């Protein structure tokens, strides 16, 4: 919190916001009233609400345990005390089922990567075109609403009644193909960005926040 008025009453601020989160976040008038009661500003309360929403979503997505939650909070916030961490944890677990249901409903149409096809197209120099043209990389992304490994085909749902799996037409309803093309310079830039993201994922700050994925 950068606001001096809010930071002068950290315990009151941290206790009141989580307890009244549901009502505060739904009405700007209540947000303004809460800011006045906390001797803070509207922007500070709104930023705190946005931070709480992010905390709820990330904690639910990663299914953080109590110990992992405290470790992540301690590494991200320097001035938070033990009591405030406990209040935040109780707030997270009280809303976890609600957030999980909302996330599941919102991710029903989310597309996942399955496979990539690519090819390079270009023309060499000729009498008509003395300078060599820049090649074009064309890509086809295979996406799927069902999160499955790209190294295997999706297993159809087996029905004991008729002893058959889903038809190919039923399976294709969840799949989508996206065509894209780029040039070598842009492709190199994309590779550099992805490699930098992988390096950032290995930093201590990210490791302390993200629970290691068990294969």
UniProtKB/TrEMBL annotation:
Superkingdom assignment: Eukaryota
InterPro entries hit by this protein: COMM, Commd2
Name assigned to this protein: Uncharacterized protein
Native source organism of the sequence: Anopheles atroparvus
């Amino acid at each position: 919190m950068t606001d001096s008025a809010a930071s002068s009453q950290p315990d009151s601020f941290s206790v009141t916001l989580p307890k009244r989160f549901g009502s505060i976040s739904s009405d700007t008038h209540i947000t303004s009233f809460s800011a006045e009661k906390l001797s803070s500003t509207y922007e500070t309360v709104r930023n705190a609400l946005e931070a709480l929403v992010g905390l709820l979503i990330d904690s639910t997505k990663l299914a953080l345990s109590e110990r992992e939650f405290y470790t992540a909070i301690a590494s991200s916030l320097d001035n938070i005390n033990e009591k405030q961490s406990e209040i935040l944890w109780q707030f997270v677990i009280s809303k976890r089922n609600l957030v999980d249901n909302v996330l599941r409903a919102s991710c029903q149409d989310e597309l996942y990567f399955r496979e990539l096809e690519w090819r390079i197209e270009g023309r060499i120099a000729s009498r008509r075109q003395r300078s060599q043209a820049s090649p074009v990389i064309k890509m086809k992304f295979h996406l799927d609403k069902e999160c499955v490994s790209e190294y295997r085909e999706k297993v159809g749902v087996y029905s004991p009644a008729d002893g058959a799996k889903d038809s190919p037409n039923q399976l294709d309803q969840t799949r989508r193909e996206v065509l894209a093309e780029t040039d070598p310079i842009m492709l190199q830039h994309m590779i550099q960005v992805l490699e930098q993201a992988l390096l950032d994922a290995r930093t201590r700050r990210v490791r302390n926040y993200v629970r290691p994925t068990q294969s």
